[in-house]
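User: Design a sequence. Structure:
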């Protein structure tokens, strides 16, 4: 059996705080990102400390088939899709009532040692602020 297309994303990553370019909100003071495989699903766990020193821990998972599935995102999202685009690109999208409101694109460096995450949110006023950050693979 061959490796899943997203295999190179699996592992634990640490935020390079100096890499953060945020158009919406303040960048975190620190953070980690973990991507694991559980059967057909992959899970994402993000832990970070924000500019006010509040700690956060968020996890979501799904099958990386590009299909939106129900998601308990409150007023922000009711469905989520995970798409394994290529061995170097892994996307997630959040939807509300069938409308894509957020897309996060994860892109690996050629050597697989760093992962760039670009997150764009579509706001009601038509603007699309983008936050970008880089994570380095933990050894």
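Assistant: Done.
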């Amino acid at each position: 059996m061959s490796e899943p297309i997203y295999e190179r994303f699996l592992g634990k990553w640490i935020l390079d705080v100096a890499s953060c370019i945020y158009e919406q909100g303040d960048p975190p003071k620190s953070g980690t990102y973990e991507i694991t495989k559980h059967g057909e699903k992959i899970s994402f766990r993000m832990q970070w400390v924000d500019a006010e020193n509040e700690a956060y821990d968020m996890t979501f998972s799904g099958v990386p088939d590009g299909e939106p599935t129900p998601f308990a995102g409150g007023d922000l999202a009711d469905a989520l899709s995970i798409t394994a685009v290529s061995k170097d690109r892994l996307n997630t999208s959040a939807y509300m009532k069938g409308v894509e409101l957020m897309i996060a694109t994860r892109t690996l460096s050629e050597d697989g040692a760093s992962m760039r995450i670009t997150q764009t949110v579509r706001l009601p006023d038509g603007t699309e602020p983008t936050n970008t950050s880089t994570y380095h693979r933990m050894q």
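The longest strand covers residues 11-22. The two ends are 26 Å apart (CA to CA).
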